[in-house]
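Illustration 12: aspartate-semialdehyde dehydrogenase.
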Amino acid sequence: MNAITTHHQFLRSGGDATLPRLLKPSPLCRPSFAVRMSLREDAPSLAVVGVTGAVGQEFLSVLSDRSFPYRSIKMLASKRSAGKRITFEGNEYVVEELMPESFNGVDIALFSAGGSISKQFGPIAVDSGSIVVDNSSAFRMDEKVPLVIPEVNPEAMAHIKLGSGKGALIANPNCSTIICLMAATPLHRRAKVLRMVVSTYQAASGAGAAAMEELEQQTREVLEGKQPTCNIFKQQYAFNLFSHNAPVLSNGYNEEEMKLVKETRKIWNDMNVKVTATCIRVPVMRAHAESVNLQFEMPIDEDTARDILKNAPGVVVIDDRAANHFPTPLEVSNKDDVAVGRIRSDVSQDGNYGLDIFVCGDQIRKGAALNAVQIAEMLL
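Figure caption equivalent — predicted structure in token form:
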């Protein structure tokens, strides 16, 4: 199968990938004909924490798309969102305020409400017997908490069993780490990565629904000659790009960059792999892009690498040199797979010991909600 054929199949695998997220119908408002009805008495009970946020809404979309079985589902959010009504798979739910007692009888809790909420309520949920899949950074570097990408290191959570009566925490990696390692890991397994240099081009979706809305608003304002509204970021985002807005640390790296360093080492269980990153915000609505340079212990040529990536789960190759067609954020928006292209030998390294690749993945989907739901699926 050539790269172009693979790409055409990829485009047929879902909806119109060229539409920005804000132009898509919200998963909270699914039409009745999309009802899948995954309610089953023998299935686990679920809770979605932060259900009204961008990732919380995507949780619902992914659960429905994948027909995830559940006997009940709780919609949990902050006090200001409590009382809102959500229609999900043909049933109407009232959003409940997140409280310590919210997790009584909950088997699996999907968290995406920020690190402070996770730190406060994650342990409470675990004490209540829930298995928590947490999308924040709160527990990622905790030695006792597995940090999991199902296609990469499923063995890290093998000891956690649904129905054991014991609660547990499982951490979802950072979006940029997930997208990077989906492509880098199959190559790492073949030739062992010694050093990885990553430059990211991160979309507004990584900063939440409010940032996506502000990018849309700023674009209109700039085109109309108005001063752009800068509430989420301190500078103009539309028609601009800037260093990722995460706090800068004493070593000059920002927190987003160091997540790539530390999380890669934990997920690969290799404290010696050398990783460096530069993370940039770009005015894209959703889906992150990453340029990844790899140095290997064993030689690996670009044709072998391309074949490995074509056969990697959750990865699609878009690598048409003749047409100069490679992955773009628009093409992967609202898609499950991570797209890889620009696969080429690094001319600065001798003997096929280096590769350059370009990776795009939907930050809200595989970079957050889908990965968490896949973790939950592994518990079934």
